[in-house]
Amino acid sequence: MNVRQRRDRLSALLDRHNLAAALYLSGENVRYLSGFTGSNGQLFLDRDRTWLLTDGRYAAQAAEQADVDEILIYERLDEALRKLLHEPVRTGFEAAAVTVAQWRDLTQKLPKLADAVPLPTDAVELRIAKDDDELNAITRAIQIAEEAWTSVQQAIVPGITERELSLKLEWTIRSAGSRTVPFEFIVASGARSAMPHGVASDRTIEEGDPLTVDFGAEADGYFSDMTVAGSVGRRDPWIEEIVAILEAAQEAAFAVLEPDVPCADVDAAARRVIEKAGYGEAFSHSLGHGVGLAIHEAPRLSRLSDQHLPVGAVVTIEPGIYVPGRGGARIEDMVVVTSDGYRKLTSLPKSAYCWNQGDS
Ligand code: ZN
Ligand code: ZN
Fold this sequence. Notes:
Creatine Amidinohydrolase; alpha+beta; binds zinc ion; 23% strand; four-stranded mixed beta sheet; six-stranded mixed beta sheet; Creatine Amidinohydrolase, Chain A, domain 1
């Protein structure tokens, strides 16, 4: 789907919400709707035309990338918007992409904008269902990360620090063509494996340590996100036990995936397995999230979500068990919802790993 087709879809949405114009402020949505990838850009659309607004640093890049009716190069955003807001029309703006202070400043300089209303959720969360081009990019981002992982995991021996492992993985991923990495990798070993977001520290990994590694790559602006867990040098029966529970929890979530399934039901299916195994309290986050141009994007697979999963939605399924003082594990795969259920996009094994086991 090209950006004009995306905007046609958006027009219908705006009509339904009685909005005559919309102002997009997040880099991801500006890119999604125009093709422009610069770090500063806004998109203003009315019923007939689309403008990309950016500053002089991006004039050439905007002219090359942005498929819009007009590009406005500005020194001050309010002055550029002043040219576009002639008569009072009902305008929606991407409220989550600005701070209260930024919006207050903008509307003080441009009182016409003060009547703008936050865009409804469906006009902000445009990117949930991925098209084929997006799925291809995500698949490449997965492939880069998985190949890097496969080559790096031989380095997981007692004596390596978490940070060394994280850097090796990042170097390999970026060398393979990933322009950036989607987030600071989580390399959580020993008792730190009980931290769901234990980014790599200077801790030295020791024989017998549990280890969870959460990483990903980028391709054409799209991200991948995956997690593996196990133990180093020697099998840890407790880690094997909890990873087996996590695998069963993932299977339970996969089993309910179908078009339009409520996100809360997918979370519940996995959570039930973990609760039954006695670790309900130890699963302290939601089951997953959308991945695309942003590493965490809508929808959220959470008990609190009132969203549904359309065909084309790409989400993670990432149950975890964390016992403070002892350790923990998480496994994470990416799936796409299809008309007949789902397809798993990631392919690394998720059973408990035992890295560089000795000859014992
Ligand atoms: Zn992750
Ligand atoms: Zn994730």
